[in-house]
Amino acid sequence: MDRLQEEGSGLVHGFLLSTVSSSRPTKTGTTHEPTGLDLAVKLHYLKAVYIYSAETARDLTVLHVKAPFFPVSDQVPWTIGRFMRHDSGRPYILCNDCGTRFVESHCDHTVEEWLRVPDRSIDESLVYHRPIGPELAFSPLVYIQMTRFKCGGLAFGLSWAHIIGDLFSLSHFFNLWTRALANEKIYCPTTSELERGFPNPNSTGKEPSSIKRVDPVGDLWVAPSNNKMTTYSFNVTVHDIQSHFPANGDEFEILSGILWKCIAKARGESEPVMITVIRSDPNGLKPRAVRNSQMISSVRVDFSVADANLEEIVKSIGEATDERFRIDEIAASDDGVSDFIVYGAKLTFVDLSEVDFYEAKIRETSPISVYCNVQGIGDDGAVVVLPAAEGEERVVTVTLPEDEMEKVQWELKKCGLITPLVNGE
């Protein structure tokens, strides 16, 4: 095992790296071929943090935690493989059991102290992240960081290459681990080529607006950015959304409409009139498989969002156009040689309201906090909405260029979304 150099200044320290693989060897020569949609999101990484109380996790050792990842890896061997390239240049995963990187660390706070911070973006320090490349054959696709708090509580931070599956898949993967920890028999189906395809909604043939071509990045899969991005997170209740901002739509659509309007006001003349909406596939597989099936849709309006009423904005979000078929087609057309970004190519809203994060139970106890975000968000920014531990609450995480964030926070306060609804001022 390799010990990383300790900075000595952070609250999370003492990093120790090892590897978790499968409990039985995968058949030699087994490969996993990414779809076009997989390739379109290869520069993005998903981050999730699950925090458990000391009462739930105090006596869990590293061996207890590692052991269930072996049978989970047996079910989804491509998550522990490594990327190679065909002669054409198209990336594929060789299922060679090289493993997931496992990171042990410690935090000088108790769980209670840690959770006192209202801005949950602090949880990003509980996720160990490294991009894929520049040596594809040596780059893990998943990092799992186990952080022990001073009180005995535990945090599990996952950095997950988006190319292998969406946030719904990441949640499913971690839920499988908790079930294996409870000695349950687990099963994760593979998907056929037909199941990995997408319906063609009478495509116009135009390049989908929800993706953006970027200059080739070669074998270091890092999304380019022209701005320094910053992240801010807050909680809001469904009741407060629906009572203070009445509009015909669900809470995600209303929240997205409020934030879109606030960001438009903050940007002034450069207000965004086109956004991307990412939600669960209404026709998703049951039982869930590890794959990219998230609905990626675009919305374009011909009015000023800053001046429009909320009802009009929310209605346009509800009419978003599914672009997965064309994304899949375009990203696969040149064997994955071209590079794209999705999150932040246009201002992006991600709905994780239906993800069963709190089903990840240890000893029949749900995590007391879950955090999610995306690494590699483009310059237009993104908003991620997920359920909080209290069922009627939502965690809203906003990632924007640093020079915009203060203006957007001011607009959120002016409209009443974060004051007094959250901060109580």
What are the SSEs and their pairings?
Layout: E1 2-3, E2 12-20, E3 31-32, H1 36-40, E4 45-52, H2 54-57, H3 62-66, H4 69-75, E5 82-85, E6 91-94, E7 100-107, H5 111-115, E8 142-148, E9 154-161, H6 167-181, E10 212-214, E11 229-237, H7 238-244, H8 251-267, E12 274-279, E13 295-300, H9 310-318, E14 321-322, H10 324-332, E15 339-341, E16 347-351, E17 369-375, E18 382-387, E19 393-401, H11 402-415
Parallel strand pairs: 7-8, 12-16, 16-18
Antiparallel strand pairs: 1-2, 2-7, 3-6, 4-9, 4-17, 5-6, 8-9, 10-15, 11-19, 12-13, 13-14, 18-19
Helix pairs in contact: 8-9, 8-11
Notes on the structure:
The protein is an alpha+beta fold and 425 residues long. The protein has two domains: 2-181, Chloramphenicol Acetyltransferase; 212-415, Chloramphenicol acetyltransferase-like domain (Chloramphenicol Acetyltransferase, 2-Layer Sandwich), CATH 3.30.559.10. The protein has helices at residues 36-40, 54-57, 62-66, 69-75, 111-115, 167-181, 238-244, 251-267, 310-318, 324-332, 402-415; strands at 2-3, 12-20, 31-32, 45-52, 82-85, 91-94, 100-107, 142-148, 154-161, 212-214, 229-237, 274-279, 295-300, 321-322, 339-341, 347-351, 369-375, 382-387, 393-401.
